[in-house]
Amino acid sequence: MIPEIRIEDYNYCLPEERIAKYPLERRDMSKLLIYDSNGKISETIFREIPGLLPPDSIMVFNDTKVVPARLFFRRDTGARIQIFCLEPVNPSEYVSSFASIGSCTWKCVIGNAKRWKDDILSFDSPEGSSASGMNLKASLVSRSGETGVVRFSWETDIPFSKVLELCGQVPIPPYLNRETEQIDIERYQTLYAHIRGSVAAPTAGLHFTQEVLKEISDKGVDMETICLHVGAGTFLPVKSSLIEGHPMHREPFVVSAAFIKDLLNSHKKVIAVGTTSVRTLESLYYAGVSCIENGEPSDIGQWDPYTREYPYETAQALEAIVTYLERNSLESLSLGTRIIIVPGFRFRAVDMLVTNFHQPQSTLLLLISAFVGGDWRSIYDYALGHDFRFLSYGDSSLLYRRESTDKTRK
């Protein structure tokens, strides 16, 4: 049964001055709120996090890389059109699309969409820009509201990834209320970012420095990576009064077969770095159920965790994925997920979570509430009362999972 959750119950007052508009000089000097398994709250500095982690644990990082996906074009009339690349259409795979020479097609969000008719747009190249010689064009293939399918073409012999590097801007969150600046190119990216594809950073990872990562490794904590490409849907506000009316967008993820085997055979605590890692790890169970029941994995739907009973143990689901991958000689599981994690969700993978402080009335705040058994407000009241900085460039928290008293969980 889909939970009946009123989004207004997850509101709080976030003063504008508490939103971190810029990152701190040092990544690991942000504040860290600790919420332990008993619900006790304390604080320290993020660089102290290695000493807070259980040695018999696995820490999971999302190694997606933010691409400079915001481009500006002009019509012959002079009208400026913003195009925000969301996901590749042709070629449909990220790696193939980024390697494309001469042209490729993407699903995009289009600013000033009504002002773009059927004409071909020219890139709004700043004077003296190294991009001025490539003759970058954009043509509209189809449109639905503010989104559309756009074909990009250019005349130089460089891949689309290089086109974006030369022409695109890092798409910092709209709630920062400022233009992208030079500092964002480096700091709106984790140090371990590896696989291009996100239009937003998995911001929980922005606090980690090489020194902190080394201390975690030296402590004996296993460090693993998954990849979920964060879509622009992460910024979409919940407009419906009940959460059941909010559509989640599909986000592609990849998890290696070797890591799934480690999860299957390990009894260590799993520490997810960021909500994207949580959503990926918790999606694995439902991918495994699909393997058991249908012989192959399928994308995870938004409400799959809530609409039926599941008789399978987590180990059974993971084993089914491993069997499927081995049978098909695959080294990784590649799927998409629309999973939404709200109060009433049964966590099957994640024990601890590193995350920032999220917007009022957001799906991410609902995830936090689900993770701490509904006790999100005490955490946020503490953060607001102790000068914590909020949102993407803000401070961090280390949360232990607490069970909900809700008896309707499946």
Report on the structure:
The strands form three sheets. Strands 2-1-17-16-14-3-12-13-15 form a nine-stranded mixed beta sheet. The chain is built from nine helices and 17 strands. The protein has 410 residues and is of the alpha/beta class. Strand 9 and strand 10 form a beta hairpin. The chain starts with 30 loop residues before the first strand and ends in a 10-residue tail after the last strand. It has two domains: 7-66 and 190-400, QueA-like (3-Layer(aba) Sandwich), CATH 3.40.1780; 70-168, Thrombin, subunit H, CATH 2.40.10. The longest helix is centred in the last third of the chain and has 20 residues, at 275-294.
Fold topology:
Layout: E1 31-35, E2 41-45, E3 57-62, E4 64-66, E5 70-74, E6 80-90, H1 94-98, E7 103-110, E8 121-123, E9 137-144, E10 147-153, H2 160-167, H3 182-187, E11 195-198, H4 210-218, E12 222-228, E13 251-256, H5 257-265, E14 269-273, H6 275-294, H7 314-327, E15 332-337, E16 352-356, H8 363-371, H9 376-385, E17 396-400
Parallel strand pairs: 1-17, 3-12, 3-14, 4-11, 14-16
Antiparallel strand pairs: 1-2, 5-6, 5-8, 6-7, 7-10, 8-9, 9-10, 12-13, 13-15, 16-17
Brief descriptors of the model:
single chain, 410 residues, alpha/beta, QueA-like, Thrombin, subunit H, 2 domains, nine-stranded mixed β-sheet, six-stranded antiparallel beta barrel, 17 strands, 22% helix
